[in-house]
Amino acid sequence: MLELRKTNSDSTDFKSLVKQLDDFLKITDGDDHAFYNQYNGLQNINNVIIAYKDSTPVGCGAFKKFSKNTVEIKRMFTTEAARGQGVASQILEALEQWAKTSGFTFSILETGIRQIEAINLYKKCNYQITENYGQYQGISESLCFKKEL
């Protein structure tokens, strides 16, 4: 059974999962990794969900405030062994509910165009492609999404 726990970016399990995510992204992002990595710090991330299966952390995601009514989804990751089991969808849904009960009405996120599994997840979860925002404006390797909560 999957257990979802709320925490923050100080969590040791979260930091471990983020390390695995960064190692994965170094490969898939290739030469673009340094650009993206500069926007993936853990500062200002106070809302984290970690998924546990049999007490083992198997996935994570977070959000941070982007504007008065919008959160940005960050650091979504599922371990290779847990992929294809709906873990990411459950984490994303829990993050959306947490953001909604915290008074936010929209969720945005960015992923790289080479992150096919992530793109498919966000489309499946009713995110719509939107114009690139913030630091991703004009970056053709970025794909941004938005969803009304």
TrEMBL record:
The UniProt keywords, alphabetically, are: Acyltransferase, Transferase
Tell me which SUPFAM superfamilies the record gives: Acyl-CoA N-acyltransferases (Nat)
* Residue ranges of domain N-acetyltransferase in the record: 2-149
Q: Does the keyword Repressor apply?
A: no
- According to the lineage, what is the superkingdom? Bacteria
The record's annotation in InterPro entries points to: Acyl_CoA_acyltransferase (IPR016181), Bact_Acetyltransf (IPR050832), GNAT_dom (IPR000182)
Q: What is this protein called?
A: GNAT family N-acetyltransferase
